[in-house]
Specification:
By secondary structure, the chain is of the alpha+beta class. It has a single domain (11-146), classed as Roll (Archaeosine Trna-guanine Transglycosylase, Chain: A, domain 4). It is 17% helix and 26% strand. A six-stranded mixed sheet has the order 2-5-4-3-1-6. The chain is globular.
Amino acid sequence: MDKPAHLPPLALSVRQPWAWAIVAGHKRIENRTAGAIAAGGMGLGPICIHAATGLKQDEFQWAHWRLHRHGVACPRPEDLVRGAIIGTVEVTDIVAQSDSDWFGGPRGLVLTDARQIAPIPAPGALGYFDWHPGGALAAPAPWMLRYDRPSGDGATGDLFGDMAPSFRTPPQRPTRKR
């Protein structure tokens, strides 16, 4: 399969559910370090958003909680496409500070004109990368099918699927080992 001509040639891989939140128009700043922006050749202009294949339960739990704090209902983890180009945005600025609740620094790519597209399976890479269709969508991990289900299995439906997530204490923000 060839790359569709109407899509930008460059992409940025973002972990879920943040990739979904970006292309759905909810998250308008993507946070990166200054080093990542420089090393990744990140600049202004249109890019595709690639949903990375990786997603750990603690990452999802924290992101789900955080999105809810912004009034955004997050899809279930097994419903989030991974390993594909899922939309496009325009990067209009790179900032070192912002009043946006989405800014966590130290730098932020300011995003506008978010647009979702039908997923196109593609491998990801670090920084901006010249993407090419290929591969397959990532299959849901077992924890995704059990997540927040009363019986802990993927066969049980949501009893109150539209309720806000609840936690005894707010989840801890996961840290990444580098």
